[in-house]
Amino acid sequence: MTRTAAGIPVRGNLPSAAGKEPSDTLRLNKRMADLGLCSRREADDWISKGWVRVNGQVAEMGLQVLPTDRIEVDRQAQGQQEQQVTILLNKPMGYVSGQAEDGHTPAVALINPRTHWREDTSRTRFTPGQLRGIAPCGRLDIDSVGLLVLTQDGRVARQLIGEDSTVDKEYLVRVIYGDVEQDVRSAFPEEQLALLNHGLSLDGQKLKPAKVDWQNPEQLRFVLNEGKKRQIRRMCELVGLKVVGLKRIRIGRITLGNLPVGEWRYLGANEKF
To answer: How far is residue 66's CA from residue 69's CA, in Å, rounded to a whole number?
Structure first.
């Protein structure tokens, strides 16, 4: 652990990647993201404000750095991060998770004082500024419901949807099989269930292993480590199932719990994905 000139703790420099020489360089914003200090976009903002030093010198945008270079961040950047919020929303059907499209309302429109869950234990008070730069971490289709995470914090976004994310997501999925709407489990072949767990491909790429099992005769539980567009619905189509209901109930260690539909709460200071 090293400390900046301002006294803010910063993680130690990254070791050289296996098989690479120390002369290999990366853009400073990527190095900072890899260190877990912030997102690339946030790093660019800090660099433009003169809040980042490399080896004691104020960094310029686009700077290439070595694994051994010392990166220091001004205390103002830490203060900015501490004000950023992460929000957990129980998204209803009919809202899109991202930008407004085809006349449909984005889920962020539900974030206001009237829909703030009254049982939220966070001491954070809502202000309109908390909606500035807030973005969803992952998709939840317009016809799907459940846990949606929106954040201003690039570190959270990277953890949940970054290329190297290992955070899993859990879904409850109601299905029918051809004309079978009741006791689908009895009619659905075991070998097809095995394919849902591992063996399917989408967009020409093999899917990562999943955990898929029956919760009741009409409902499957999916646990995924990736999030391709409409992935569960498309996986089900490949084995002859039709999804008639989809609800996300967990992301990492954070569960939907008793959060009412259409309401939201803050991610607590002691909660981690």
So the answer is: 5
Residue matched to tokens 């260190």 = 35
Q: What angle do CA 201, 207, 209 make, to 5 degrees?
A: 130
Residue of 45, 74, 141, 153 marked active site: 141
Q: What is the mean pLDDT of residues 5-31?
A: 57
Summarised one tens digit per residue, pLDDT across range 144-183 is 999 999 999 988 998 999 888 899 999 999 999 999 999 9
Q: In this structure, are residues 157 and 84 in contact, taking their beta carbons and an 8 Å threshold?
A: no
- Per DSSP, the three-state class of 96 is strand
Domain annotation for the chain: domains and CATH numbers: 2-81 (3.10.290.10), 83-165+253-266 (3.30.70.580), 169-251 (3.30.70.1560)
Q: What global pTM score does this model have?
A: 0.79
141 in active site: yes
Distances, alpha carbon 22 to alpha carbons 1, 60, 61, 67, 69, in Å: 20, 21, 22, 6, 10
